[in-house]
Amino acid sequence: MRKVFIDPGHGGKDPGAVGNGLLEKNITLDISQRIKNYLVSNYENVSVKMSRTKDQTVSLSERTNQANRWKADLYVSIHINAGGGRGFESFIYNRQFKNKPQTENIRTMIHNAVMDKVNWTDRGKKQANFHVLRETTMAAVLTESGFIDNRGDARNMKDSSWLQIVAEGHAIGIANALNLKKKSLPDQTGRLYRVVSGSFLEEDNARKRVHALKRKGYDSFIVQQMSQKERYYRVIVGAFSQFENAENRVKDLKKDGFDSFIVQM
User: Fold this and answer.
1) Is the pLDDT reported for residue 102 higher than 80?
2) Domain 193-264 is of which CATH architecture?
3) At the top level of CATH, which class does the domain 2-178 belong to?
4) Which residues of 55-90 are buried (b: 16+ CB within 10 A; e: fewer)?
């Protein structure tokens, strides 16, 4: 099991960068949640922990201590830039340290995966003496995804589909760096457990749920069914051959505010 620690920058009393009606702390949390959901939904044998899962104040030392105690394999700190400019850049620690070449390779994979997903300015692969890069005992990468005080970047930050693309770029880069295996499709001839997040009489309402799930990083689809001559639409958020995996999906959905249940096929 590979352990990935995602650190949404700032939070609580610390808003981070501010601009164009946006707060950095909100955007970093949104992207981080999407990264986590994409990883656990699409890859095997990966556990993801976050330094915060809501708008709360977490000190820098608390963040790195959490990751060190958990013995994470990789630490990724998510930030938004400010101060003039546009585009994406990434950082690792700027001094010599154990396994620096490995960290550089991991950073390159994450950086390139994000750049492959998003058409924006590449500000380069950099180094800095940031606390979260210095005080972690595992490979650590910090990313700056756009400038909150740039109108073009800020406009993108208000678009949930753009946030999803940025998150997917990070997640794919992390998966490549850790050699995570993509989840295979369940055996259709065997027992199958579907996770259902809503049954609706109106198809439009089902589609709204699909879009809401997508914003949080969940892939889902609609199945039309009949009950007592009445048609309804179920939203399916995963099909699993192992009941435990279906249970984990239900738990993740609950954390993100979605009710769901399991149906055996």
Assistant:
1) yes
2) 2-Layer Sandwich (3.30)
3) alpha beta
4) eeebebeebbebbeeeebbbbbbbbbbbeeeebbbb
